[in-house]
Amino acid sequence: MIILGINFGHDASVSIIKDGEILAAIEEEKVSRIKQDFGWPRKAINRLLSEYQIDKKDINLVSAESSLFNEISASEVDYRFSKTKIKKSKEIFRRLITYCGISQSMFNSSKSKNKFIDNVFNEGFVNAKIEFNDHHLCHAASAYYTAPITCNLIITSDGMGGDSSFNFYTPNKNGLELVKKNNYTVSIGAFYSMITKLLGFRPGRHEGKITGLAAFGKETKLVGLFKSLWEYENNTLLRYPFDKIDSEWVKFDIESQLSFSEKINLNTSSGKKLTDYKKRSIVLLHWLMKITDGYTKEDIAYACQKVAEEITLNEIKLVLDSLKITNVSIGLAGGVFANVRINQLIYELDRVNNIFVHPAMGDSGLSLGSAILSDIELNNKDYLTRKYTFQNTFLGPNYSTDLKDFISNFNYSNVDMTKMENPAFEIAELLNKNKIIGLWNGRLEWGPRALGSRSIILNTFDKGVNDSLNKRLNRTEFMPFAPVVLDTLAKTYFPKYDPNVPAADYMTMTYDTAPKYHELLQATVHVDGTARPQIAYEKISPLYYSILKEFYNLSGCGALVNTSFNAHEEPILSDPNTGIKSLINGRVDFLVMENYLFKLK
Prior knowledge:
Blueprint: E1 2-7, E2 13-18, E3 21-27, H1 29-32, H2 42-51, E4 61-65, H3 74-82, H4 85-99, H5 109-122, E5 129-133, H6 135-146, E6 153-161, E7 164-172, E8 175-183, H7 188-198, H8 207-214, H9 221-227, E9 230-233, E10 236-239, H10 242-245, H11 260-268, H12 272-291, H13 297-323, E11 328-333, H14 340-347, E12 352-357, H15 366-378, H16 400-408, E13 415-419, H17 423-432, E14 437-440, E15 454-458, H18 465-472, E16 482-486, H19 490-493, E17 511-512, E18 530-531, E19 534-536, H20 542-555, E20 559-564, H21 576-584, E21 590-593, E22 596-600
Helix pairs in contact: 3-4, 3-5, 4-11, 6-15, 7-12, 7-13, 8-13, 9-13, 13-14, 17-20
């Protein structure tokens, strides 16, 4: 039995479950080389099917989340499959004539789903059934069923999925039961994204910059003003009732704020709920512009982070009270939980014993969640006990054949290539000499974090490297690089670290760094004293672990800087050609691919 899980929206991805086990999972962007690629993940699908020698005719079921099809038209489904200029032109024309009143805008879920099914069949999946699953339930399933711990509460939070933004689930023998649902109109994710846009960054992509910037800010009246966006009515969370904040916003004219093309896209490119969500976001943005005038970016970011934390934690406390749970292990998924600081504060709540954050917490994780739900239902498995626990997140393409071909046909006149006799020791020596290493090793990681397969590594001894390396990568970051740490030293550097808590395995939570080690780890410690570590284990990443161990023997430091191997606005590296290009462009001093070392002549 082979199931193909698909995320058809932004951050397109594919996951494969074969005979009840996760075989592979990868985002389309890492194969197509288009950041946050969307729609049908054709290149990722073809790559994985080729690598595992699976014929399209052998796929039994294609599973995707369902809410998107309520918000896009059948013609847009066609465009998302083809991504051709012709289909794009047709979709733009449809929007234009709809806006001009020549035709009606039809967002018919069944028509869009049928168009999706037709296209899947035309792609060659002629023997596959098609199934759709709820957006937030897919998020919840991705966290619950892959967790190496037993979670008794699952929380999902994002901008919007269907009509929800912030949901709570408990597991039982019948599946994941929705115990509290927050409407998209109260979205914390939307609030955070509008702050991201307000500060000049790209919403849906650069929220992490706001998290880092927040630590440089201070408490101001903005915290109270931002809090006034939310209120409770009979334990129901409501967001920005502008008539209660400032009466002039009741008559706010959204249309007057938009260009002609923006008006067309707003009113004709999505269904009623998504259009309403977008309009609310526009009103929110302009309100934020008004009340933040005169404040620094740092103080705005501080207030945003502070309020996002407080609203999230308060909702969790209310649910714990209502369920009368005193000792809880929580599974987290959804884009809001890419916020490592919020995750730390959730873990530090008195009643929380453990947390797991799905490594692909954003919408790319929907493909795996949907595949899991379909696999359980199709095979009549027990919803409570069935698990798909991660052993690691190296679930992408291997590219081993590509590397062999690359080595055999190597012909770069400006690059030296040598085969290392003792890779871990030789790399550690370079790191001890302050060299920056691009590490290309094995299968691609699943999710947004680089965890040693496609990582840039260097020593932690110079805080100035945050600026110098960011310049080489064309990045603008306010959070320091993250450390990768030997498992034997994790508790030493981070006193609150618990090896039974899996969040640090995937760099999904910050920890307070022991003051004694701030200087040693200075390139990875933020101004608030926290760091977001990845703990390295020998059985998971032998080469990665050996490099750390050799570096510790040379330097006395059991940690290295680990940042993703890519330049700004570029997906994490994929095949060997992307690695050598990065070396030639000066992103790193040395490139390591398996046991080969490359450097510029």
